[in-house]
Amino acid sequence: xxxxxxxxxxxxxxxxxxxxxxxxxxxxxxxxxxxxxxxxxxxxxxxxxxxxxxxxxxxxxxxxxxxxxxxxxxxxxxxxxxxxxxxxxxxxxxxxxxxxxxxxxxxxxxxxxxxxxxxxxxxxxxxxxxxxxxxxxxxxxxxxxxxxxxxxxxxxxxxxxxxxxxxxxxxxxxxxxxxxxxxxxxxxxxxxxxxxxxxxxxxxxxxxxxxxxxxxxxxxxxxxxxxxxxxxxxxxxxxxxxxxxxxxxxxxxxxxxxxxxxxxxxxxxxxxxxxxxxxxxxxxxxxxxxxxxxxxxxxxxxxxxxxxxxxxxxxxxxxxxxxxxxxxxxxxxxxxxxxxxxxxxxxxxxxxxxxxxxxxxxxxxxxxxxxxxxxxxxxxxxxxxxxxxxxxxxxxxxxxxxxxxxxxxxxxxxxxxxxxxxxxxxxxxxxxxxxxxxxxxxxxxxxxxxxxxxxxxxxxxxxxxxxxxxxxxxxxxxxxxxxxxxxxxxxxxxxxxxxxxxxxxxxxxxxxxxxxxxxxxxxxxxxxxxxxxxxxxxxxxxxxxxxxxxxxxxxxxxxxxxxxx
Length: 565
What we know:
Number of strands: 9
């Protein structure tokens, strides 16, 4: 049976061309849909809370961007540098009993490695800015009240957050996939066992936890984070940041809007570098007659083969600034001149950098562009950037303070304030001898709820150029009885990044602020102490220490004697 040949008419040809164009457009659309970098994930912009799968995908993209694109990594490294500075000062309390428990937790060797040390803090900032979440695991020994604080390496192992019935903002438990990582010495390898448990949240009371379960005794089982053998209870707290405009209980990577732009920046820079590199390969051209050309090529081939027998022309690249040899008679096509339009690349890069600057909340010059690093930048553009860094500082400090308050409360609850006071005296803490003041200390040490504890974390000051104004303001506030002495000292010392600020403040003012001085000499004594402190700091650090403002005379029309002012 012979095949029938049908002639192709003009109309058929036009339909065929249209079909090819349509196919091309469909392929382009499919490819663009697969490019996740230029398309937002579906439920990020829907009316629902971001799903677990979407959030997990966002974290993967954030980790990939951090490991792949220099601009993305640099943004997070800048956050760490500005937020942590030279380190976070040890948290302070005006109560020596509370301060003893703070020191006991903060200086613990294990906690320093994973929670309170500088390296541990950098890891927490990495998770905070890279994933939008930091999950704290607090192991509390119920006999001693001591806490070992760990940071979960992967918060995506939180499968669900269980809230109180009818109150989706009151967290009771975290459904968490716990991995038991144990080394088998006989097999010479680690064996991982996964177990899903319900970790109580530190913000939930024991009554809330018990009422949420039909069987209250279940709280004393491993399924709910309790180890009977060691009398250890596992608590959890999720620091969830940048939750998006829709809110929810989970955090999201703060720089997720920059994924496509950091990739585009890399592509445009790589394209410019590729063309520049390609043009540097061939710098000269020689046209030879046919005979001479054959002779030259034969010599080149022999030279290459003499170097290495398996080396062929196919895998040999020209050296930089090489000479191109062509056969004058055989040359048919002109080479494509890929001109490097430097201004075009620069303009495109500038537009991309503007998008990155907006997404990262940082000016362009933070990413190596000096064009904007002028006086106008320093005076008008820096403040929003510094406020962005301060926002990260505040979020981070609030989370660390909350975890520390809980651990201190657990320690005090197990020891009792009287026993903790005895330990504080034995270790040389400054404790008053007046029985009335001692009773006040004991009463204030253990509040009704742990979140009422008076614990303050001093984050490093970032704006050094305003130091004089800052110190003068602190001294003025102190002289007007707006802040206690030790707080003023800690504020000034922290602004200067003094590493032993706690010791200096304690040596000068003691562990308790003596704000209820019975004599009128307290103001002058405080002024003299601060003058001495600032003078010593000026010698040590080379800073220009301002003199405290003169205390206004009382009894004038400035309401200086109005105790209710």
